[in-house]
Amino acid sequence: MLHRDYLLEVIARFVDAVTIALRGALLDRNPTAAREVEDSVAALLDLDPATAMNLSPDSLVTMMLLSGMGDSLASYVSYALDRVGDAYDNMGDKRTAELRWDQAQAVAEAFNCDPNTIPEEFADLERELSAAE
Asked: What distance in Å separates the CA atoms of residue 5 and residue 22, rounded to the nearest whole number?
């Protein structure tokens, strides 16, 4: 029970931080906000942000497997990486966008997540982003 409560708290903090940062990254095309999304992903995985975001897709999956919480976090990580990839693409940074999309896809495949399914906690954000398009 304590592990589940802890995990729910970790996810809630992650969702809050990523929601704010994705708004800035996608709506304002703010590169600092995009890095905040990446920092949140790295923190969730207990990794150094510079290291985590430069990992190949397969290496990122390996680190998630080693964390022991990959199954519980995969859909959130995949979503955040996919959307921050969109932000980089909108900002004209195609190379970083491709890496984030590849990382998101690798996480989704490794942990059997549907990359087209938005985690419930991000549904309001998605509605807001859709309305702004």
From this structure: 25
Q: Is residue 45 classed exposed, middle or buried when 0-12, 13-18 and 19+ CB atoms within 10 A define those classes?
A: buried
Query: Average pLDDT of the chain?
Result: 94
Contact between 99 and 56 under an 8 Å Cβ cutoff? The reply is: no
**Residue 13 contacts residue 25 (beta carbons within 8 Å):** no
CB 55 within 8 A of CB 43: no
Q: Are 54 and 80 in contact (CB under 8 A)?
A: no
The residue among 59, 123, 124, 52 whose CA lies nearest residue 81 is 52
Beta-carbon count within 10 A of 114 CB: 9
The DSSP string of 66-112 is HHT-HHHHHHHHHHHHHHHHHHHHHTT-HHHHHHHHHHHHHHHHHTT
Q: pLDDT by residue (tens digit) across 42-92? A: 999 889 999 999 999 999 999 999 887 778 899 999 999 999 999 999 999
Exposure on the CB side of residue 1, measured as CA atoms within 13 A: 0
